[in-house]
Design goal:
This protein is mainly alpha-helical. It has four helices and three strands; from the N terminus they run βααββαα.
Length: about 110
């Protein structure tokens, strides 16, 4: 994918899940959602994409993954506020499990 100036992104960024790679149109096509849905997530400060020098929204892979998770919750009938809370709690639970595993693997003194 080319940058707004027509150049190619740095190769070092290809593995960076936080690199703002995708445009609003690309994300909308990938996820079969309306661009207005993506803009509404930005307006509600739920997903804040970076902006290109030209002011266009650019989404990272991490943000696209979160949008997929939110969309799944919305498809199950949850409100947007509930979907945000559910995904936040899921993330907190995953972090807690990671910390528990780390602590269990520490040598005891």
């Amino acid at each position: 994918m080319r940058k707004d100036d027509g150049s190619l992104p740095d190769a070092a960024n290809f593995d960076d899940v936080d690199y703002p790679t995708y445009t609003t149109g690309q994300v909308a096509r990938m996820l079969t959602v309306q661009q207005a849905f993506l803009r509404s997530l930005d307006a509600a400060d739920i997903i804040t994409p970076q902006r290109s020098p030209g002011g266009h929204r650019r989404y990272s892979r991490r943000q696209v993954t979160l949008i997929v998770r939110l969309r799944e919750q919305l498809d199950e009938g949850h409100t947007l506020a509930a979907a945000v809370r559910i995904t936040d709690l899921q993330d907190q639970l995953e972090q807690a499990h990671t910390e528990i595993s780390r602590l269990r693997n520490q040598p005891r003194q």
